[in-house]
Design goal:
6 helices, 18% strand, globular
Length: 262
């Protein structure tokens, strides 16, 4: 039995999925807001030092594995909030932090790939922005990418996300863009839905100018960072023939977020 499941079992009662979120996000007090999502992401970016990281992922990570910002005092707790608030309660991973597993034990810095928190960051921002109980909160980007594809094909009623073809759709601030990574680096829009896990990275668009997006993502070189993403003259992530514009990331899908207000 996993640690989280054991803890829930010992408690003797079921845990509501929204048990860890504040009331203003659960009800929510205000309608799901584009401006709120953008400003929450920007606020977290400023908290982490307003880093701009435009280098390719191969250039990430310090030489000293101990010098990871996610493990610093104050910062590992912030990552813990992304897990605790962003995830539905009752899972082992909702107790993770930037350097602890569900039992509170420190994991080695080189094992942080098993505790990747970029999807928890996206989930945290969406919950805090008022997405409420119907958002597909998940530790894996693949889950809400598949949800968005199914929603775009009429298989989910009243969805909050729609998957859009990156060769034809121009993402706007508040949308989410996703790239495959590692073994899924060549993932394509045509291959969706995956019906299972694949490694990915997603980021929230916070600004759009001609031929360029500014996006904020979590767990980018072990911090929250802003990245500039080149686009076509049509502001799409791919050319009409499906070729990628950004040489660093294979952005293969855009998620149109259906906010209830701006």
């Amino acid at each position: 039995m996993r640690v989280g499941s054991l803890l829930v079992a010992l408690s003797g009662c079921a845990v509501r999925p929204d048990a860890h979120a504040p009331p203003f996000a659960n009800q929510p007090y205000e309608a799901f807001s584009r401006n709120a999502a953008i400003n929450i992401a920007l606020g977290e970016w400023r908290y982490w030092g307003s880093r701009i990281i435009d280098t390719p992922p191969s250039a990430y990570h310090p030489v000293d594995a101990q010098a990871k910002q996610e493990r610093d005092d104050g910062d590992w707790q912030e990552v813990g909030l992304y897990w605790w608030i962003g995830m539905n309660a009752g899972h082992y991973y909702d107790r993770w932090t930037g350097k602890h597993n569900a039992a509170g034990w420190k994991f080695p810095p080189q094992d942080d790939g098993h505790f990747a928190w970029s999807a928890a960051f996206i989930s945290y921002v969406m919950r805090m922005a008022g997405a409420g109980p119907d958002f597909p909160y998940s530790p894996d980007h693949a889950d809400y990418i598949d949800y968005a594809w199914l929603a775009a094909h009429g298989k989910i009623a009243d969805p909050l996300l729609l998957a859009e073809n990156p060769a034809t759709y121009a993402p706007v601030p508040g949308d989410v863009i996703c790239a495959g990574r590692d073994s899924a680096g060549s993932m394509t829009y045509a291959a969706l839905p995956s019906h299972g896990f694949f490694p990915a990275h997603c980021a929230i668009v916070v600004k759009q100018i001609p031929s360029m997006l500014s996006v904020i993502g979590g767990n980018v070189d072990d911090t929250v960072a802003l990245t500039h993403v080149p686009t076509t003259a049509r502001n799409t992530l791919q050319h009409r023939d499906g070729s990628i514009v950004d040489p660093r990331y294979d952005w293969f899908v855009a998620l149109k977020v259906l906010y209830r207000r701006n």
